[in-house]
Amino acid sequence: QVQLVESGGGLVQAGGSLRLSCAASGRTFGTNSMGWFRQAPGKERQFVATVTWRGGRTTYADSVKGRFTISRDTVKNQVYLQMNSLKPEDTAVYYCNANQGVNYWGQGTQVTVSS
User: Fold this and answer.
1) Strands 2-7 and 18-26: what pairing?
2) HEC-encoded secondary structure of 19-72
3) Edge-to-edge order in the sheet of strand 78-83
4) What is the predicted pLDDT for the residue at 34?
5) Per-residue DSSP letter, 75
6) 10 Cα distance to chain centroid
7) CA pair distance 68, 91, nearest whole angstrom
8) How many CB atoms lie within 10 A of CB 9?
9) What's the burial of 8, exposed, middle or buried (CB within 10 Å: 0-12/13-18/19+)?
């Protein structure tokens, strides 16, 4: 089992920045990748970004490319999402994900971008 705890969400004006953090604990040695997903009200959860745990290779959704940056700290077992140039359409609950063949999820953190 892996436990994930997100932090760093909040309210920001359009054009602003936020940094999300996710701390992983438990059986983390089998992690293939970690990433971020988001879910806006009335919509399905969607992929935002992911990073492979060993090689650090990153992948982004087209909607966030050039604005968001995902990174990881393999010593601290943490993953981060730096979000710049935020838009109102980025408003959602952001969930941390750890993939070990099975997926583990955090409880989510709210990000609200006002226009």
Assistant:
1) antiparallel
2) EEEEEEEECCCCCCEEEEEEECCCCCCEEEEEEECCCCCEEECCCCCCCEEEEE
3) 2-7, 18-26, 78-83, 68-73
4) 97
5) T
6) 14
7) 14
8) 19
9) middle
Whether 52 contacts 33, CB under 8 Å: yes
User: What is the chain's pLDDT, residue by residue, as a tens digit (115 residues)?
Assistant: 899 999 999 999 999 999 999 999 998 888 899 999 999 999 999 999 999 999 999 999 999 999 999 999 999 999 999 999 999 999 999 999 999 999 999 999 999 999 9
77 closest CA partner among 20, 28, 39, 5? 28
What pLDDT does residue 29 have? 82
